[in-house]
Design brief:
The complex is a heterodimer of chains A (236) and B (472).
Chain A (H helix, E strand, L loop, with lengths): L3 H5 L2 H13 L15 H6 L2 H14 L6 E3 L2 H14 L6 H9 L1 E3 H8 L8 E9 L2 H6 L4 H8 L2 E5 L15 H4 L1 H18 L3 E4 L2 H13 L5 E4 H8 L3
Chain B lengths: L2 H15 L2 H22 L4 H17 L1 H14 L3 E5 L2 H14 L4 E4 L3 H5 L2 H7 L3 E4 L2 H8 L16 H12 L7 H18 L2 E4 L3 E3 L4 E6 L3 H7 L3 E7 L3 E2 L6 H12 L6 E5 L13 E7 L3 H4 L15 H5 L3 H4 L10 H12 L16 H5 L6 H16 L3 H14 L2 H25 L7 H7 L12 H9 L2
Helix pairs in contact in B: 2-12, 3-12, 9-10, 16-18
Chain lengths: 236, 472
């Protein structure tokens, strides 16, 4: 699952995820019917539009054995939102079945593939932004930390206030931009305070928000999705 | 969203965001409470205690009518009086009437959010009654003519210097900036009020149906003074705040102080069963319990039913990243934070608080921390659906999502759209990176670019790359 944002604006994240999965021996497919999971409309109160988008999404992945998402939030939409969206509908069973085989990227590597070591190296220091939906809706907390810990030469610096939202929140970022900006400012303060050279995340959406604010504040700090860090440092 | 309410909301938000002292207090306050409450939340029996609270509360709500009857019968059996107020007006008029009939001149109050909800103080003052808040935080906000900032810590936003100014103005002399000395001043003022008061008004944390007891959880001792010294004691509480029996309170009393301030126990847990009986040394001559509905029975049994499980611990306010930035007053409602953003629209009507369901990033911290396991974030999202269905579906958003869906359902349309849009996205990104916040863009784009750069779009979408490279 490449997600709408990943498809349009962060293709490099999808490419990196495909590379890593293939290097780990996973057969990867990209069902071309996929676009968006419907979360933007769902979280904005437009249930009908969300349902319609989600129905197409459900069809696109009907034949997939496991679905790996490069976004914790979109994976949470499928796992948490779809069963609600299709409750009492004809697609309810399909939605629940898809929810049961959908994983966030780091979760899939650690919990499904059982990855314990990686041929990945990168020097320097990195901190990690735990995305809220990955953390709270999927329970993905340790998995990305463990994967970062497997990178030879990389020093992991925990982020203060790690459980705090970056302020993206989908349409929240543009409906309440003043509050959203105050939130991302504090996140950026925390990131800069770690002194890390790299900030890693599990969601292009949070990273787009954090990077957008970092750049506006004049920082050139490197911002990467976990898949990009793994793919770039992979010793092939 | 009505333009006026939105503008008023934005102004309150801007005021909070633009106040550096408030920003510091909010961040430090939340961090401090997190530090205090973290050990409790890490205790092994914590999750089970929260499960138990949720169980007790939902079991009570499922038969609330029965427990209300039982509670009322037992309050009256113990010599008290019960009044059911259907709405805020009925509750206000009843309490004001009680004061009028008894020729009450001075009311002392211990902390109660329900009396805020029904607007009791102005109603009493209109009758010529002096009303004195005796909880220290409430005493401070009353003196400042403000509304409680936080359901549990009403004056958490007040720097010591402001308290010094307020108290010094009241005293007519400078009281210095020693917190103990300032508290001492309040204590002195309040002591005289306690002895002079004709009526004491409290909230009720919980009512025990089996015994007709009102349980108060307090820390400062003002609650006991309020309930024992004046001749008449009036309890004003939400009709949902009942539990079947005393043992049902166990988990709640264990969790409430720990979730709120990290204390193992509060200083006082007071159970009041009827007025003073013959032979007893203290207590009021009369006890009146006002059970306030004010919209609660509308919530009962509906899709927001669980919000009535709330035990008012304040934990969701203390973790919420939005509350951390805008504070309690910006919500423009009696109840603030995530619980307020859910409860206020349900009690007052969505049209009165159209911004509140949207004033959340849906990060889920509130749902995670909730002592009664209320899915607050899911409810905020649900309220957005109600808003769109019942109040207003802003045409730009509605059409936007319909158009987006029309493309999302047709991958070839989607792909064509991407191919068309990407060059513009690249241009816009470069343009915004160069211009920064100097050039205001319209609409949602402007809302983003006023404070943030755009991502640097690449030449191809993923799906285009996949066609060329990905397939094996």
């Amino acid at each position: 699952m490449i997600t709408c944002l990943g498809d349009a604006l962060y293709p490099r994240v999808g490419v990196a995820a495909v590379q890593v999965l293939r290097d780990l021996g996973v057969a990867v497919d990209f069902p071309a019917g996929q676009t968006c999971c419907g979360q933007p409309a769902y979280n904005s109160g437009f249930r009908d539009s969300a349902c319609s988008t989600a129905r197409a999404f459900l069809r696109a992945f009907a034949g997939s054995e496991n679905v790996v998402s490069i976004s914790g939030s979109c994976a949470a939409m499928v796992r948490d939102g779809f069963p609600d969206l299709f409750a009492g509908e004809a697609e309810e069973a399909d939605a629940k079945a898809l929810a049961a085989r959908t994983y966030e990227f780091s979760e899939f590597l650690v919990d499904v593939l059982g990855v314990e070591e990686l041929p990945v190296a990168r020097r320097g220091t990195a901190t990690l932004h735990h995305s809220c939906h990955a953390r709270r809706l999927l329970g993905v907390v340790e998995q990305p930390e463990r994967l970062l810990g497997m990178i030879a030469g990389l020093e992991y610096v925990p982020l203060p206030g790690a459980e705090q939202c970056c302020g993206f929140g989908g349409t929240f970022a543009v409906k309440m931009p003043h509050i959203s900006t105050a939130m991302v400012d504090e996140k950026v303060d925390h990131i800069l305070a770690t002194g890390a050279e790299l900030v890693v995340g599990l969601d292009a959406s949070c990273l787009m928000n954090i990077e957008g604010r970092l750049r506006r504040r004049g920082s050139r700090l490197e911002v990467r999705h976990l898949a990009e860090v793994l793919a770039a440092g992979w010793r092939r | 969203m009505s333009v006026e309410t939105r503008r008023a909301f934005d102004e309150r938000v801007e005021r909070a965001l633009g106040d550096p002292a408030l920003q510091r207090v909010l961040a430090e306050g939340q961090d401090y409470v997190q530090e205090l409450t973290a050990p409790a939340r890490a205790e092994p029996d914590w999750p089970a205690a929260l499960d138990e609270i949720a169980r007790v509360r939902l079991a009570t709500l499922a038969h609330l009518d029965r427990y209300v009857d039982e509670f009322a019968t037992n309050v009256e059996r113990a010599g008290g009086h019960v009044f059911f107020a259907a709405d805020a007006g009925e509750a206000r008029r009843h309490v004001a009437g009680l004061a009028r009939e008894r020729g009450v001149k001075l009311v002392v109050k211990s902390k109660s959010m329900v009396t805020e909800e029904i607007g009791l103080n102005p109603a009493l003052e209109a009758e010529g009654v002096e009303v004195v808040e005796t909880d220290l935080g409430e005493f401070i906000v009353q003196m400042a003519h403000e509304r409680p900032f936080h359901i549990l810590k009403p004056a958490i936003h007040m720097p010591l210097e402001r308290v010094r100014k307020l108290f010094s103005a009241d005293a007519g002399r400078d009281l210095g900036d020693d917190a103990h000395a300032l508290t001492g001043y309040a204590r002195g003022v309040l002591r005289e009020k306690f002895f002079a008061a004709d009526m004491g008004i409290t909230g009720g944390n919980f009512g025990v149906a089996a015994t007709g007891s009102v349980v108060l959880v307090t820390n400062e001792g003002n609650g006991r003074m309020t309930t024992t010294l004046p001749r008449t004691h009036v309890v004003v509480m939400g009709v949902e705040r009942l539990v079947p029996t005393f043992p049902d309170l166990e988990a709640i009393l264990k969790v409430l102080p720990r979730a709120g301030v990290g204390l193992r126990a509060t200083a006082y847990v007071t159970a009041i069963t009827g007025p003073r009986r013959s032979g007893e040394a203290d207590g009021p001559e009369e006890l009146h319990v006002v059970l306030v509905d004010n919209g609660r029975s509308r919530i009962l049994g509906g899709k927001y039913h669980e919000v009535l499980s709330c035990i008012r611990c304040g934990a969701c306010l203390d973790i919420c990243p939005v509350f951390r930035k805008i504070g309690g007053h910006a919500y423009g409602a009696v109840y603030s934070g995530p619980i307020g953003a859910v409860l206020s629209p349900l009690l007052d009507g969505l049209e009165c608080h159209p911004e509140l369901p949207f004033a959340s990033s849906l990060c889920g911290a509130c749902s995670e921390v909730c002592s009664a396991r209320i899915p607050l974030a899911a409810m905020l999202r649900e309220l957005r659906e109600d808003y769109v269905a019942e109040v207003e579906a802003a045409p730009a958003w509605r059409l936007g999502f319909q158009a987006y869906d029309a493309a999302a359902r047709r991958p070839w349309v989607w792909a064509a759209g991407e191919a068309l849009a990407l060059p513009f996205a690249r241009l816009a990104s470069a343009f915004v990176a160069a211009a920064g916040s100097r050039l205001p863009a319209p609409g949602v784009l402007g809302a983003w670019t006023r404070s943030r750069d755009l991502p640097g779009a690449e030449r191809s979408s993923f799906r285009a790359l996949w066609r060329r490279w990905g397939r094996r």
